[in-house]
Design brief:
The protein is α/β, with parallel strands linked by helices. Helices cover 34% and strands 15% of the residues. It has helices at 25-32, 42-47, 68-80, 82-86, 104-113, 124-129, 149-158, 198-209, 226-237; strands at 2-13, 22-23, 59-63, 100-102, 118-123, 136-137, 184-188. The strands form two sheets. The chain has a five-stranded mixed sheet.
Length: 240
């Protein structure tokens, strides 16, 4: 069941390049496929007119362990890049064709800090709390919204259909949501439907998706939409 709502950011460490460089999904796919090898590549330059880009080698960094951020990132790339969809695909852990791996947000950030030209993906809260540079990613409307609670909520509101298994993909939302950040994602709680701890699980999970949501904003988690809360309540009722 979805119980938290946040985003995955694309962060980079490139000397001489300002914060909030503009990137697109197809360009990111080409970077992580190893097709774009230098930061002054024309595909990046076209998205950033007036920005002086160095000839620094691009160094992709990815999560070596299973990660929800990897799932969100690869889910987005698969929606905007046929080559990515046919290649590494979507999973919490995929075989990245190039680059270096790091375990956890700390491992990715450490690997990036050691390599001028590095680019990776990290949790929103980690990027902001550590004051790392991050990209503005183009959405389906052609806009570059700043990742944050408003743009995450806009992405969530754009996707109203909830499957029976409660899996909700809100990456690359439609162009009708121009303010939506395109790599927004839910985090999930996974619990057994039959448990001796059911009498504890039910109230705890109910609290997490209702009153407990007020603690999310300082940690860069947006409040759950009402339809997701309703689906969560129905799911909680199934725990016996």
């Amino acid at each position: 069941m979805p119980w938290a709502l946040t985003a995955t950011l694309v962060s980079y460490h490139v000397k001489g390049v300002p914060n909030r460089l503009k990137l697109s999904g197809p360009v990111l796919a080409r970077i992580f496929l190893g097709e774009i090898k230098h930061w002054n590549d024309p595909a990046i330059a076209r998205l950033n007119p007036g920005v002086k880009l160095p000839d620094t080698t691009v160094m992709p960094v990815f999560r070596s362990d299973g990660s929800g951020d990897t799932y969100a990132f690869t889910d987005f790339l698969s929606k905007v890049s046929p080559a990515w969809k046919a290649g590494p695909g979507v999973a919490a852990q995929v075989a990245f064709p190039t680059g270096a791996g790091g375990k956890g947000n700390n491992g990715v950030a450490a690997a990036m800090s050691r390599s001028n030209g590095a680019i990776g993906y990290l949790a929103l809260s980690y990027v902001l709390s550590n004051h790392l540079d991050y990209a503005l990613v183009r959405n389906a409307a052609g806009k570059f919204p700043v990742p944050g609670l408003p743009s995450i909520s806009a992405a969530a509101k754009a996707v109203t259909t909830i499957a029976a298994d409660n899996v909700v993909s809100i990456t690359n939302p439609p162009a009708s949501a121009p303010g939506a950040y395109p790599i927004s994602t839910y985090s999930y709680a996974i619990v057994p439907k039959s448990s001796s701890a059911a009498s504890t699980l039910r109230p705890f999970l109910t609290y997490a998706i209702t009153d407990g949501q007020r603690f999310g904003e300082p940690l860069q988690f947006a409040p759950l939409p009402s339809q997701v809360v309703d689906a969560g309540r129905r799911t909680i009722a199934e725990i016996k």
